[in-house]
Each structure stands twice: as structure tokens, then as C-alpha cells.
Amino acid sequence: MKTTILLTTLIAMPTLAAEIKEVRLMTLDPGHFHASLVQKEMYPQVNPVVHVYAPGGPELEQHLKRIELFNTRSENPTRWEQKIHTGRDFLAKMLKEKPGNVVVISGNNAKKAQYILACIQAGLNVLADKPMAITPADFRLLEKAFVEARKRGVFLYDIMTERYEITTILQRELSRHATVFGRLEDGSPDNPAITKESVHYYSKLVAGKPLVRPPWFYDVKQQGEGIVDVTTHLVDMIQWECFPGQALHPREVNVLSARRWQTPITLAEFQKTTGFDRFPDYLKPNIDSKNVLQVHCNGAFVYTLRSVHAKISVEWKHEAPPGTGDTHYSMMRGTKAALVIRQGQEQNYKPILYVEKRTRTSDDEFERALRIAVGKIANEWPGIEARKNAAGWEIVVPDKYKVGHEAHFAQVTRKYLEYLATGRMIDWEVPNMITKYSTIMRAYKLSR
Question: Tens digits of per-residue pLDDT, 194-219?
């Protein structure tokens, strides 16, 4: 009942705040590398001095090293000046001193919802990495934070990088051309109309360097289970693609089934990614008789949003085969065509969008409609084109649009800075964030 009242209020009213002409960043307890990626570029309206508040230790050191790499790179170096504030009372100190007006939060997810609420209550804007909530209790804090943000005229926003991936953008755009896609089907529990599957790896390179994971990253009580973590991106994309520009409500969601499963991590694998030669005590309950850590980092669920059936799946593995990395599969099925993003060996592990005809229309007639649609989209994305292949058509994308995952953080940040500068956030953003996390929390509870 409380959520219904909250969403009704947030949907009915625009999201407004005071215009901010100069942004002064504060970074809070940066335990995840995403915190540094926000600063991979400079922004004209952002002061180069960034105040970092943290308890100190290796996670802070890794964060500062990454910023230093950005400052000292040969091509387009950044000019960030980091002011460091450490100590056990780092949060209280930040909320008292408030040398900035925007807080970047990306770290241990067990603390994130509490951090977010405290910052919002202090009248600070927050740009938070996903997930902003990993348990139902966190979600209740997050709901409260959105209410407080409304009262205090500040913006709370999570970093949804996948909206800026070019094949996802083109999948969304093509689905809006009825001459090619038709209408989105409703599907069924066994045959969903939209599917999003993601495979991630613990061992990877970031900014060209081997990523050092904090040991708590393997503790689902601190990082979150797979069903509440990467799924934030997948649920966000389903909302963004299927119902563009529309405010959604938790009552329009029905989670039908959900499951979770484990990934085994040996001590050698753990040591490779963390640098620790033993498992911390808090991981012992999840270590089996063979001294292998079992991590509940995988999850999948099927749900309906309005009448559309959707399937979400996230899986984590230790290390990708050489030359590969995180992969994504996405399918939207319309009455005339399916739009499918594949990223496997055939695609050289790069995402490629395919259009697969489902109508009895001749190939020539369908191709004419497709080329007209692609031509219209190319007005905004010059150079894209459709190419016939054995299975249908491939959307060819110029390399200049394939900027990569790390660059998407700057794109999200620029969108957030735009909201701050104008004092207005797109009206559907807040209700859809709440609907997204409500969906994920229902799946979390059902999976157990």
C-alpha cells in the first residue's frame, strides 16, 4: 500500500530541483572500480577538485591509482585533484563538512542504501552505482530516499550504462518501426517476448590493467546475489525498450518464477583476483568440504510487465577465454520480426544486432521496409546500414559508435549533469527506478 501511494505521488509530479551551474563532486567509500570510471573524463561544469571520504585501506588506494592513471595517460589526460579524508567517522565528517553538492557512491552494496539515504537527508544529490538495494530491507530505505529527495529538491540517480550501448539503442529504435517489427508480442512464461541474458567474469581488465576485486565481492551479503545485481541493467533495458517514455508502476509487474544457483571459486582463483591467499572468515559458511567457495552469484527469473512476458538471466564465471569478455544476449520478438543481439564466437565476442523476419512478406518487400527504417534511424546515427545474411539481416555499425563499457560511465554522468543543470529530471526516471528495484526484490524473495 505504501509503495502504491509513493508511486502515485512520484508519477503525478515532475521531478524538480534547484539548478546547479557548478558541480563539486564527493566520492564516498569507493570500493568498486565503477567509482573511478565516472572520472575517466573531465566535464566543463564539474570542478576538478574531488573530495574522497573513505575509511582508508587497499580499496581507497586502488581507486586513487586508477584516477592517477587517467591523469597521467598520454592521450587526453584528466586533471582531477583528489582531496582525501579518512578515518572511522568518514561518513559523519562528509555530511558535516559537505565540500561538494554531488556524491558518487560505488562500493560495498551492504552499506549503499544506508549511504544513499543519509546523503539525501543531508540535502546532497547522489549518483549511485547499481545496485542501490540488495535486500527487501534496503529497498524500503531506497523508497524512503526517493521521498526525501522529492522533499529536499535533490536528484537520486543510478548509473544505467547499458542504455548507451549502440546495439541496444538500435534494437530499441527498430522496435519502434511497425513496418519492420510489427508490435511487441505478449509471449508466454515458456516463450517470453523479450529475453536478456548476461554472462560476467570475475577476472578481467579495467583501464588496461588486471582488476583487483575486494574479497567482499565474493560475499553475497555484501555484494548482493546475482539476481539483484546485474539484473538491474537487464530490467532497466526491458522497461526502457518496451515502454519508452512511459512511467511504470510496481502493480504492473508480476514475477512468475525465479531461481538462483552457485559458481564454484577455488582458492587459487580467489587469490588471482583479490591478492588474498586465504578466504576471509565471513566467507567460511559458503566453503564446501573441498575448500571451494560456492557463490550464489547467478540468478534468473520470468515476469510480466503489463502484459509482456520477459526473461532475465545473469551468470558469473571466473575467467573468460582469451580474447573474450563479458557477453550479452538480447531478443525482442515482434509480430513481423525478431530483433536479436548476439555476442558469441561467431560475432568475435562483439555485440551484433540481427533482424530475423517472422512475417510471410517476401524478403524483397521486407528488406525495402527495413532499409527505409534504418535510413531514418541513420539520420541520428549516420553510417549504420542493413546487410543481408543467411539468417536474415545484420545491422552494420561504424566503429566510432562502439565506444565500450567504460566510456558509457561518462555518458551516464553527462546525462545526470544535464538534469542538475536544468533542475529537472525526465518524469519517468524516478517511478521507473522504483519499479525496477521492486521487480528485482520480488524475484529475490521468490528465488528463495
Answer: 999 999 999 987 777 788 899 999 99
For residue range 331-384, list pLDDT tens digits in order: 999 999 999 999 988 898 899 999 999 999 999 999 999 999 999 999 999 999
Q: What is the set of domains in the chain, with CATH numbers? A: 2-159+405-425 (3.40.50.720), 163-401 (3.30.360.10)
191-204 burial, b if ≥16 CB within 10 A, otherwise e? ebbbbbbbbbbbee
Q: How far apart are CA 26 and CA 102, in angstroms?
A: 6
pLDDT one-digit tens code per residue, 215-240: 999 999 999 999 999 999 999 999 99
